[in-house]
């Protein structure tokens, strides 16, 4: 009986308080803050491309590879000294193309001993295969400011198709060179074992995530004359 009384007491008190405030539902409704409008979904910005043959600027290009090491860390290495050309056709983007050479002499893991190991026969065997290459086979529009670039990546004479998800950053006159310039970011994921550099997998992840950022400028002999 005492237990039942204790259980009913809060209910009785609540009912009494409610009786003393007959306008409470209306007051609560009035005090409730207005629902905020749903945030608009961000729309990718359209980038107007400019047709031309753009020479990649190695000083403003990085190709970053990242992998997982025994589950403990996610190291990176930069493939520098990139050489290549980007042909962009603004009227027919499918006529565009990309050719890139990655000299392994520019490989930098930020650890000198590891750089030596990466260039050894355990991995890239850079003495026999001094460069990696990428040549596009297809370029498609993938939305405002976006491209899908499919191409053949060759490492150690192993060639496999790779798909790059590309963001067009900007097309404009370069403020210092006074020539048309373009900027792109791109991402992809590959399996290194496909290219003969699969040592220590799967403890060291077979999947390698690649992030690219690049600037390219129309060659001086191809740039439109000023004035």
UniProtKB/TrEMBL annotation:
<protein>
    <submittedName>
        <fullName>Polyisoprenoid-binding protein</fullName>
    </submittedName>
</protein>
<feature type="domain" description="Lipid/polyisoprenoid-binding YceI-like">
    <location>
        <begin position="53"/>
        <end position="217"/>
    </location>
</feature>
<keyword id="KW-0732">Signal</keyword>
<feature type="signal peptide">
    <location>
        <begin position="1"/>
        <end position="27"/>
    </location>
</feature>
<dbReference type="InterPro" id="IPR036761">
    <property type="entry name" value="TTHA0802/YceI-like_sf"/>
</dbReference>
<dbReference type="Pfam" id="PF04264">
    <property type="entry name" value="YceI"/>
</dbReference>
<dbReference type="InterPro" id="IPR007372">
    <property type="entry name" value="Lipid/polyisoprenoid-bd_YceI"/>
</dbReference>
